[in-house]
Amino acid sequence: MSDNGRVPRPPTADLRPRLPSPLTEVDDDRFARRGVRLLLKRDDLIHPDLIGNKWRKLAPNLTAARGRALVTFGGAYSNHLRATAAAGRLLGVPTLGIVRGQELADRPLNPSLARCAADGMRLHFVDRSTYRNKSDPGVLAALLDSTGAADAYVVPEGGSNSLAVRGCTDLGRELRGRADVVALACGTGGTLAGLAAGLAPDQSALGVPVLKGGFLEADVRALQAAAFGGPRGTWRMEDRFHFGGYARVPAELAAFADDFAQRHGLPVERLYVAKMLYALVALAEEGAFASGTTLAAVITGSPFEDPQSSTSR
């Protein structure tokens, strides 16, 4: 870390971010009639390839890698895999993505994985049992050895480690004095762990998990312990809005995303951002936010556009 306590950024113009990301107020009657202001923290505008929290989490890890090849993990539609592949292309370093689901190896690549491959990422598919145990030192060592990546720098699934958590504290700092509650969608919990640590004492963070299971609270506590030595900030989880689990986008959620986009001119990413925004509307209508509350919603990503199609994924 640098002398001022901030995590250093990769010294390359190709990865230069737009920071702080814009904060804009939107007029939405579903919040206004409850006396709640809604702000959108546009982290999707930080960087064209490393979007939102992906830049904040990857940048300090890229610095730590010092030009070594990168290995990371993800599912078939992982935003993190795409961001890591893009970073490798921009930095000119090899990348290896270990993908959950051996059965995918015999199928045509979906648009998300095809984008990874186009950016130069080598894809290695593993069965789900091996993937679940990827953090076991023996399993990880065997994976790295079998793929010829024993000397590579390993970035965990979702990019969430202590470096990433410290990198995300700037998100909280950028929002100090701007909102009472800051909400974001959560996959691995790293962004929430850092965000909460960066907020002022009179602010709180609200995480909306996109996976079912209720395990993220423990993960966030563990990430804060690894990054800071203990808990930081005020945060809580709202587990009711995963819509059945990761990558599940039922018709109700898709319709909500389309409606929000029409209302505010903001294309809504479906796997994360839509679930968070849906949760905020539902909570506002339940009276969960007191009149006079200023609520900031962190837009952590944008819809993926398949270069070969006009359909966003």
Compile the SSE list and pairings.
Elements: E1 23-26, H1 29-32, E2 37-41, H2 53-65, E3 70-74, H3 79-91, E4 95-100, H4 111-118, E5 121-126, H5 128-132, H6 137-146, E6 153-154, H7 162-167, H8 169-174, E7 181-186, H9 190-198, E8 204-209, H10 216-228, E9 235-237, H11 251-264, H12 273-285, E10 294-298
Parallel strand pairs: 2-10, 3-4, 3-6, 4-5, 7-8, 7-10, 8-9
Antiparallel strand pairs: 1-2
Summarize this structure briefly.
It contains 12 helices and 10 strands. With 313 residues, the chain is an alpha/beta fold.
Can you tell me about this structure?
This protein is α/β, with parallel strands linked by helices and 313 residues long. The chain folds into 2 domains: 173 residues, Rossmann fold (3-Layer(aba) Sandwich); 83 residues, Rossmann fold. The strands form 2 sheets. Strands 1-2-10-7-8-9 form a 6-stranded mixed beta sheet, sandwiched between helices. The protein has a 4-stranded parallel beta sheet with strand order 5-4-3-6. Helix 2 crosses helix 3, helix 3 runs parallel beside helix 4 and helix 9 crosses helix 10. The protein is globular, with a radius of gyration of 19 Å. The two termini are 36 Å apart. The N terminus and C terminus are likely disordered.
Contiguous uncertain segments of 5+ residues? 1-11, 306-313
Number of domains: 2
Report the major sheet. 6 strands, mixed
Distance between the termini: 36 Å
Task: Calculate the mean pLDDT score and round it.
Answer: 91
* CATH topology label of the largest domain: Rossmann fold
At CATH's second level, what is the architecture of the largest domain? Answer: 3-Layer(aba) Sandwich
Q: What portion of residues is helical? A: 25-40%
